[in-house]
Amino acid sequence: MKIGLIGYGKMGKAIEAIALERGHEITARVNREHPIQEVNWEDIDVAIEFTQPDLAVQHMEICMKNHTPIVVGTTAWQKDLPKVNQLVSDLGGSLLHASNFSVGVNIFFEINRKLAEIMNKHKEYTVSMEEIHHLQKLDAPSGTAVSLANDIIEVHDQYEEWHLASENEANQSIAINALREPNVPGTHEVSYNSEIDSIRIEHIAHNRSGFALGAVLAAEFLYGKEGIFTMKDVLN
Fold first, then answer.
1. Which of 19, 53, 89, 96 could tie 229 with a disulfide, CB 3.0–4.6 Å?
2. What is the CB-side half-sphere exposure of residue 190 using CA atoms within 13 A?
3. CA–CA distance from 31 to each of 7, 61, 165, 220 (Å)?
4. Which of 59, 97, 133, 203 is the catalytic position?
5. Which of 24, 59, 97, 137 is labelled catalytic?
6. How far apart are CA 106 and CA 100, in angstroms?
7. How does pLDDT run across 76-112, given as a tens digit for each residue?
8. Catalytic residue check, 133
9. Does domain 103-205 have CATH number 3.30.360.10?
10. Catalytic site residue 97?
């Protein structure tokens, strides 16, 4: 499979290494030195996009117009999801997006949701979250933390929204503490605390390899398909 990398920083290079190991070919590497306007779209089977929130939708639109399936790992653009959905529908496009491509994190999503269903019966516990990422991480909280919080909100009657821990919000809002530290691929913790005890679940990424592998698996899944998919479709 011929893969075009839209974004060729640390994540793009990690994806490249995994893709080559799995027998694929990298036929485009988009960065500041090689803008997306220079891409030969006829030489790409699937694009994988890891850039910035303000660029992601533009990149998706370009891929749709060039009939190129795209896997999007950039987060914090989802406010434009209705526009993107319409683009996919109008142009017969192929899109797979996820807040996190790690297989381990997607297992963590399922554990988080199941725990929230159980804890919904125990109102004496208050939920809080913490995420830690590298200093270059632009969005706070992370897309993964937002997904975890939204899954809790969906099944737990006590919560209606989330907020950054630095902000003051009502009791029906989940506090997310977002920390930025050097050389941290990603840590997410969900805690339920009462006067008697605490229950915690945690996912710690040791490197970027898990995210890179998931992105390549997503590209393999998306190739030849039409429509909108998420990592849940890949794992199922």
1. 96
2. 27
3. 5, 17, 34, 23
4. 133
5. 137
6. 7
7. 899 999 999 999 999 999 999 998 999 999 999 999 9
8. yes
9. yes
10. no
